[in-house]
Amino acid sequence: MYPFGKGIRRLTPYLLLLIPFILYLVYYVGPSAMTVLYSFTDVTNVPGSDFRFVGLDNYRELFTSGNSAERWDSILRTVYFMAVVTIVQNGVALLVAILINQKLKGDYFYRAVFFLPVVLGVAVVALLWSFMFDPVNGPVNKLYRVFGYSDTFFGSFDHAFEYIIFVQIWMYMGYSMLIFLAGLQSVPKDLYEAGYIDGTSRWQSFRHITFPLIAPAFTVNILLSIIGAMQTFDIIVATTDGRFNTRTMAYDVYKETFRGTLEMGLPSALSVIQFLFILVFVIIVVGRLRRREVEF
Fold first, then answer.
1. CB 52: neighbour CB atoms within 10 A?
2. CA–CA distances in Å: residue 103 to residues 14, 94, 248
3. Which domains does the chain have, with CATH numbers?
4. Over its length of 296 residues, how does the chain's per-residue pLDDT go in tens digits?
5. How far is residue 228 from each of residues 147, 166, 175, measured CA to CA in Å?
6. Residue 160 near residue 153, CB atoms below 8 Å
7. pTM
């Protein structure tokens, strides 16, 4: 049977999908393809200006020019940022999700509290933590002074990047927590009861029952964390504006595109490099996690 009828009516679902497909091509595939194309040209941001193909010159300039050391620092800093955020954010989110899943009193309140930073927005979060980390009268620094320590927080060359990592984890941990919580609530209770009868401990129940069954949720969270961390630039702009050793690849793309020279070829090349880094990490990590799901 054909729910949309026969004849030309059978094309109805395809016609309904045609508009979003066209919008996807125009606003996603098109700009992505043009970015790759521009990375091989000397195109500028001046309307109507001519441009020519320069081959791999933009890519060479990224890693051989006078500020190539800063590029490598940004790449290493991005990888460090991605690794710490992915591991800590998902570890804390899983722990919180397990605690909330224990049917605590007021669990819906806790869910809302932990998810609230996700909906606040970067500007509000940056303003909030700039106040909390105020080096003069901020409450965190007052607490530090009780223990005989003080810091300049977002103004510190040594620690500013770590504080940005903390803010990133604080902001998006609630999102990961909800995904884990959805996975935990889908685990059949009968399996825990059977394990209890067999004498399994809580750790054995988690290792052999809970974790294998929430493996898809774990994979999704790792994937989202890697992509999100590798693309993060807004919280850096709002807190340090790339100063104090906090520049990442995403921030460099933003700065070169919107606040640098009028050249578009160089930031396009940097965007392609950033995409390749994300692609490599996603293929390696998520591919491994998918194999683990099959093994479980």
1. 8
2. 45, 15, 41
3. 67-295 (1.10.3720.10)
4. 456 566 666 777 778 888 888 999 888 888 888 888 888 888 877 676 677 888 888 888 887 766 667 778 888 899 999 999 999 999 999 999 988 888 777 778 888 888 888 888 888 998 899 889 888 888 888 888 888 888 888 888 888 899 999 999 999 999 999 999 988 888 888 777 777 777 777 787 877 778 888 888 888 899 899 988 988 888 998 888 888 888 888 888 888 777 666 778 888 888 888 888 888 888 888 777 777 665 55
5. 35, 14, 12
6. yes
7. 0.84
Q: Say how far apart CA 205 and CA 5 lie, in whole Å.
A: 51
107-120 and 68-100 helices, crossing angle to 10°: 160
Distance between CA 234 and CA 274 in Å, rounded?
16
How many other C-beta atoms are found inside a 10 Å radius of the C-beta of residue 236?
27
Phi, psi (degrees; rounded to nearest 5) at 104: -70, 155
